[in-house]
């Protein structure tokens, strides 16, 4: 027999993986437009998304699921031309990625769900920190990751 | 009857040949209508909700509703004690109130006194400024853990809401840090 058919959490987790690919890509242009502590934070955020990506690739591979390929580039929702647009994109990327992890909660259980919750929480925290750096209020959202 | 028709259309042949689900559903709907006995079937829901049945078992989310209202009450009390915290605390208090309302919606029971309101019994804080914020921060951390635990074991249809509540409380901890 072949491996178990990829049912259950697979679509949500592969979607989360593509969101992580896009987030990693976006932090390239974001980091270029930031300086000092903000640039350091952007590098740390990018590293965190790389960790999530790597963990997902391992998880999906172990489950015998075909891992979606990364792309050379991703369309950004708006051009990143300065610090303000870089911070705005950082907030948007974290909010958007949070949405994918939130969607994964309903399709996972046990340790997989706990991982998805940790990822959702991390995205929400980074979005809040970026809002603070950008001087955007309020700093928090009532339902992180929920489609608006 | 009307409600079940769209479900059956276009699939009648297939369903009848295989499982007969659609026919069973129609029969079930017919039975409900007969029980309700009213021309407007939706109004019949009250017959089932308010009978002489024993009170339903408490929903496992009830403690989270109480927790959200308790947190909202703490923030509202802190705002009253130290209005200088308004910019930071108002959105957080509103988030907890929204969480309570959404949890109640998911539970499917209306609160006894209408719209959700913060716990009135929240005692007035004896501290202000940094000490007060530190107390709120600790309460948010406890609340985050409670919501995360509830999320871990919740049925699928509740997991996303509970995850959002846990994540929101984590961001409150961050803002109060």
Automatic annotation (TrEMBL), chain A:
Superkingdom of origin organism: Bacteria
CDD domains, per database record: Ferritin_like
Domain DUF4439: 12-147
Matching Gene3D superfamilies: 1.20.1260.10
Designated name of the protein: DUF4439 domain-containing protein
From TrEMBL, chain B:
Renumbered residue ranges of the record's region Disordered: 108-127
Top-level taxon of the source organism: Bacteria
Protein name in the entry: Ferritin-like domain-containing protein
Species per Swiss-Prot/TrEMBL record: Micromonospora mirobrigensis
């Amino acid at each position: 027999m072949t491996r178990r058919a990829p049912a259950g959490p697979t679509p949500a987790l592969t979607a989360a993986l593509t969101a992580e690919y896009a987030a990693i890509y976006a932090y390239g242009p974001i980091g270029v437009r930031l300086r000092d502590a903000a640039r350091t934070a952007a590098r740390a955020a990018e590293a965190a998304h790389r960790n999530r990506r790597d963990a997902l690739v391992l998880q999906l591979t172990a489950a015998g699921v075909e891992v979606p390929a990364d792309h050379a580039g991703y369309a950004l929702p708006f051009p990143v031309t300065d610090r303000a647009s870089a911070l705005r994109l950082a907030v948007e990327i974290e909010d958007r990625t949070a949405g994918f992890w939130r969607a994964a909660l309903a399709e996972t259980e046990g340790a997989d769900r706990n991982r998805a919750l940790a990822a959702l929480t991390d995205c929400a925290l980074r979005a809040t920190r970026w809002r603070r750096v950008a001087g955007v209020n309020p700093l928090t959202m009532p339902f992180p990751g929920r489609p608006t | 009857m009307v409600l079940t028709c769209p479900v059956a259309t276009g699939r009648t042949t297939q369903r009848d040949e295989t499982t007969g689900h659609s026919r069973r559903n129609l029969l079930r709907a017919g039975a409900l209508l007969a029980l309700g006995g009213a021309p407007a079937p939706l109004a019949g829901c009250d017959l089932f909700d308010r009978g002489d049945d024993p009170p339903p078992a408490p929903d496992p989310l009830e403690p989270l509703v109480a927790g959200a209202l308790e947190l909202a009450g703490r923030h509202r009390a802190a705002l009253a004690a130290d209005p200088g915290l308004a910019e930071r605390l108002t959105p957080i208090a509103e988030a907890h109130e929204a969480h309570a309302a959404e949890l109640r919606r998911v539970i499917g029971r209306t609160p006894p006194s209408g719209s959700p309101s913060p716990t009135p019994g929240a005692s007035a804080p004896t501290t202000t400024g940094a000490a007060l914020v530190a107390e709120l921060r600790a309460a948010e951390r406890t609340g985050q853990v409670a919501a995360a635990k509830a999320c871990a074991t919740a049925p699928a249809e509740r997991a996303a809401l509970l995850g959002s509540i846990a994540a929101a409380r984590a961001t409150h901890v961050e803002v109060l840090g």
